[in-house]
Write a structure and sequence with these properties.
α11 runs parallel beside α12. The chain has a nine-stranded mixed beta sheet, sandwiched between helices. A six-stranded parallel beta sheet has the order 14-13-12-15-16-17, sandwiched between helices. The protein has a two-stranded antiparallel ribbon with strand order 2-3. With 516 residues, it is an alpha/beta fold. It has two domains: 269 residues, 3-Layer(aba) Sandwich (Rossmann fold); 208 residues, Glycogen Phosphorylase B (Rossmann fold, 3-Layer(aba) Sandwich), CATH 3.40.50. It has 18 helices and 17 strands.
Length: 516
């Protein structure tokens, strides 16, 4: 069925902003999604009549699936369309090609890549299914915006299906330099697939430059020219626009939540429990790109070199579980736990344990309280497309007294690098020195640095990001898709016989999507 509604925002991503699973009584349960994509896009789609297509996070048959999705649509103010992925497809398309081939390669870790032909076949099949479902529901005037490395072939599949409306794509992870990209067996097919979109968005100028260099080296007959803030590629009588659009967060939401009574109360408890100590915070997904072992080694060296600070500093390291079942990630978890045990075993004394380690996601109030309470944040990935934790931390630093220690390899360093303490995370000594500089920095310098970073984030928030992208794609802005006070999401007819026909009122409330 093709919807009769016009001018919708249609977001296509690997995951919906929530995951469905079985609750103990057999009914569907909903868990909030995590990661930068959810944080960035849910505020944009909410109550604007938008549609979000993605995998609901399970390969199992879930009774009353229609009920769960309808209730989530109603509570979150946009229509969700689930796309089925089987267990074997999940293992080959997601765990395989997406996360054992593309993810490490695009993060400059080719030694961790595995290139298996069945992975690529599954990747193509799943991208085709996403395109077919998108074509089924999209009207000619809808704005179709595809996201991230799991779906780079959706544009080519939509063209194959005869869809000639404007198609846009945004890559949330880095794009590698040519010498790295050349290692990908399917490099030419993937590159041509991306060029089927009308607008390609990247996080930084460096990522766009890498992409252009790959196009020039691999595809004959292309012409590239800078036109204003965009670059244009001409190929086979088609014109593709390329832009750098640094993603951001909902500054107003984070600022407001960080100032609420519950958050302030939790932050006060944290400071009271760690009274008289400098609180240093790390918040990361479990991933080899985040540089967590390097960070722990730096903290270990910092403690060795500054015995006078013992008992007066704590590192709080939160690691959010991710991609369990991939051997590399399981080994990383073991390494992190070994390093935490080593540091605590060597330096713990009565009344002081230097590293507080949590392997779990935190509710929004707790996370924001840690942001608010911490004197410094360690955001030191080996490579990152953007890293929204850095922006969240600064936004929640209401009194502007925190210090951001930031990797030069995080995309966000292009915006916040001048006012943060920038380090090479591979240089353990440099990071250890930055920790010392952060906790000894004069109050007025802390305040001025943080104030300037907060201003950048406030000015270039998530709505600015969407506006800049949409202006480049279709010469429209977010206000052209206004909030509808009386909007009631509709459930798309996807042709799935398993939907059933149960009232949405029978399903419980959806947890808060901002929990990470």
């Amino acid at each position: 069925m093709t919807s009769t509604r016009r001018n919708r925002l249609i977001v296509v991503s690997n995951r919906l902003p929530f995951a469905l699973s079985h609750s103990p009584d057999g009914s569907p349960s909903v868990r909030p999604g995590s990661g930068g994509l959810v944080t960035a896009l849910l505020p944009v789609l909410r109550n604007r009549g938008g549609t979000w297509l993605g995998w609901p996070g399970t390969s199992e048959e879930i009774p009353r699936l229609r009920t769960a999705v309808a209730r989530a649509s109603r509570d979150l103010g946009c229509t969700f369309v689930p796309i089925t992925i089987s267990r074997s497809e999940y293992e080959q398309y997601y765990l395989g090609y997406s996360n054992e081939s593309i993810w490490p390669l695009f993060h400059d870790l080719p030694s961790q890549c595995r290139f298996d032909p069945p992975y690529w076949q599954a990747y193509g099949e799943v991208n085709r299914r996403f395109a077919e479902q998108t074509a089924r529901i999209a009207s000619p005037d809808d704005f179709i915006w595809v996201h991230d490395y799991q779906l780079m072939m959706v544009g080519a599949e939509l063209r194959r299906l005869g869809r000639f409306q404007t198609l846009a794509f945004f890559l949330h992870i880095p794009f590698p330099a040519p010498d790295i990209f050349m290692k990908l067996p399917e490099r030419l097919t993937l590159l041509r697939g991306l060029l089927e979109f009308d607008l390609l968005g990247f996080q930084t100028q460096r990522d766009r430059r890498n992409f252009i260099q790959c196009v020039r080296q691999l595809i004959r007959g292309t012409k590239v020219r800078a036109v204003g803030s965009l670059h244009r590629v001409w190929l086979d009588e088609r014109e593709v626009h390329l832009g750098a659009f640094p993603i951001s967060i909902d500054y107003a939401w984070f600022s407001r939540r960080a100032s609420e009574r519950d958050t302030r109360r939790e932050a006060a408890k944290i400071r009271q429990n760690l009274a008289g100590r400098h609180i240093i915070l790390g918040v990361d997904r479990l991933d080899t790109t985040k540089g967590i072992p390097h960070r722990l080694e730096a903290f270990h060296r910092f403690l060795i070199q500054h015995p006078e600070i013992h008992g007066k500093v704590n590192l709080i390291q939160v690691v959010v579980p991710s991609r369990t079942g991939i051997p590399t990630y399981d080994a990383l978890k073991e390494e992190i736990e070994r390093l935490v045990g080593r540091i605590n075993g060597e330096f713990t004394r009565c009344g002081w344990v230097p590293v507080h380690y949590m392997f779990r996601g935190l509710p929004a109030t707790d996370l924001l309280a840690y942001y608010r309470a911490s004197h410094a944040a360690l955001v030191t990935p080996l490579k990152d497309g953007m890293n929204l934790v850095a922006k969240e931390y600064c936004t929640c630093n209401e009194k502007a007294r925190g210090v951001l220690i930031l990797s030069q390899f995080a995309g966000v360093s292009a915006e916040l690098g001048r006012q943060s303490l920038v380090v090479n995370p591979n240089d353990v000594q440099q990071t250890a020195d930055a920790i010392w500089q952060a906790i000894t920095m004069p109050e007025d310098e802390r305040h001025e640095r943080m104030r300037r970073m907060r201003r950048v984030i406030r000015t270039h928030d998530i709505f600015w990001w969407v506006d800049s992208f949409m202006r480049a794609a279709i010469d429209r802005q977010l206000h052209d898709f206004p909030v509808l006070d009386d909007y009631i999401p509709e459930l798309e007819d996807t042709g799935n016989d398993a939907w059933g026909g149960i009232s949405p009122d029978q399903f419980g409330p959806v947890p808060e999507m901002s929990e990470r």
